[in-house]
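Q: Hi! First time doing this. I have a protein sequence and I read that you can turn it into a structure. Is that right? Here it is:
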Amino acid sequence: MGQDELRHPALTGAPWPVIGVRVRRGDCGPRAASWRPAPRTVLEDVLLPCTWPELERLAEIATGRSRARVYVQDFGAAEPERRLVLCLRGAAGAVRVEGPLAPVAELLAARARAAVLRVAAVHREAGRVEDAQVWRGRARGILKDGRAARRGRSVRAASAGLPTLGRHP
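A: Yes, that's right. Below is the predicted 3D structure, encoded as structure tokens:
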């Protein structure tokens, strides 16, 4: 997360959307993560990120517009509770969340939208009305994508689960 971890609203004690992930911890962070129960894992509330690129990608994954995977990583070394945050591939110390996403896809999309709306509220409270409107528009886009996915217009639905080689319907 880098510098973003210093600005994450959850650090100030503000309410922030979380999603349940089963995690097995090692000495220096998560060793394994799963959407389903797995041996020696504990259900933890994992924070959603607060940056648009990560939230957008998570929403695309949840609504079926992307076949990328979801990962978790430590929230930050200075955080005493050792909380975790969802992230994307390539983040330092990231561990892939195993298991099928389908059972939690709608929940993940809803939580990503809630995080986007929370960022909009932060901007509105700070007097940045234009930024708040941009973030609310992004949340509306996530809602529309979720509805389209339920109607069968997602990458997974169109390809019947087969690889599309980068082509989208």
